[in-house]
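Give me the fold.
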Amino acid sequence: MSMLPTGEERAAPRVEGPSADGPAPELIEAGFGWEIADAGVLHHGLNIADFAHVLDLHHRAVISDDVARKLLSVLLEAHRRDASDFPYDPHYGEAYNSRERFFAERIGDCAGWLHAGRPRREAARVAFRIVLRRLTAELLKSGASFAEAACTVANRHRESFMADQTYLQQAQPSTFGHYLLGFVPPALRDSDRLLSALQAVNRSPGGAGCVNGSHLLADRGYLASLLGFDGVIEHTRDAMWQVDTFIDILSTGVSLLSNQSKLAEDLEIWSSQEFNYVDLAGPYTRSSVLMPQKRNPYALTIIRGGSGMLIGRLSGFLAVVKTPSARSDNLIFAYGELPRALDYAVKISNLSRGVVETLTVNEDRLWKSLEAGFSQATDLAEYVMVECGIDYRSAYKIVGHAVRAASAAGQRGIDIDVEAIRQAGQQVAGLDLSLDADKLASALDPRQIVSSRSAQGGAAPAVVADMAARFAQTASDLGRQASENLARFELVEQQLLQRVEAMANL
């Protein structure tokens, strides 16, 4: 039995087709205005995407030589105009519509051929990836450069002894070089993730049509090759609506900056008068307008704040891309926001590199602070455990008692002697511990302690030097790959432009 309504049950026919009315002013202000604000970000990419689309149509004999020349000529005019000088107007909708209107004013109905086999969404998707691949490569290059600079400084300070810290409390003897080098592996991992993300974003959505492709463009590989993409996004619906690649790029950028922000927060504390462990180079500081004595580590504030801002951008992007499939709102808010976020991430990462490579480390202050504390207590407990044959927990309690007594007496860790350990052993565990004075002094020497950390990844100077050299080589390789990709993208666009100019001038 039919379930369709009949007679009076039938509803009024649904109105289909474009509206005969113009857009509401509220829609222009809140919607189209937002999209047009991002036109400058996509302007170059849209021009490149349109060039390739016209060449593709001509290659398949969808358009004639004459139509191709007219389209390419007007596209060249748009390409040579700065985005700020192009007549993008929110009254006409998104940037693509303003471009279509401009082209039609120049060459009439011939401009309509630009629509063949491609919706406006596809043009924006292609342009978006052209913009993002360059920014991703630039962020990769910056992250690798930061890592390489940190390796250089870490190697320079592999024997700058200091008390490493946890919870801002002295923990164990180490070196500034080993401390700083700890920020390199995360930067390398993020750089490696960016390299993978670059390979993912540099794939063509071209020829996907709206959702299921176009019979006009059966081979999508030609367009991809014109644009320098490494291949096509195979599934056409995925090509139009995927967001995971963009999440990956932005989240990795956030991770890269979060690592640098941790370093910046440490350095801000350590550059204070109270610590005086490091000094920022003058160009990375800003003077107080009111207080003549103050030179604030302003660059560190920018790094920390920039990292926080990028976290907000990521949260906002995740909020809009959770929409059901095939919805425009999951990317129209990203066309400008994501490139701007990545562009700023590059600037922040470059700033972090500049801070690190010009940093002054106050080695005498680091040593005096180390010498005045009790960071050798763990090694002392292990020494007592081994020499006296007692369990570590008992040794820990004995050394803890000795540390409290020495601290109360105004002594330092290096001042603890065999008598102090003997008394602590009797009072804590009823043990009469006998130690060799010279061996005890060696166990308490911060330099000896650091030298003993010769296992893989340890703080011994030779180990730090080896790690720094290997990490720096990895960073250099990643930076080289970023530069090669940037050069390749530039060359592809130059070659495309040369082909366009040659055909337009026939």
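DSSP finds 20 helices and six strands in the chain.
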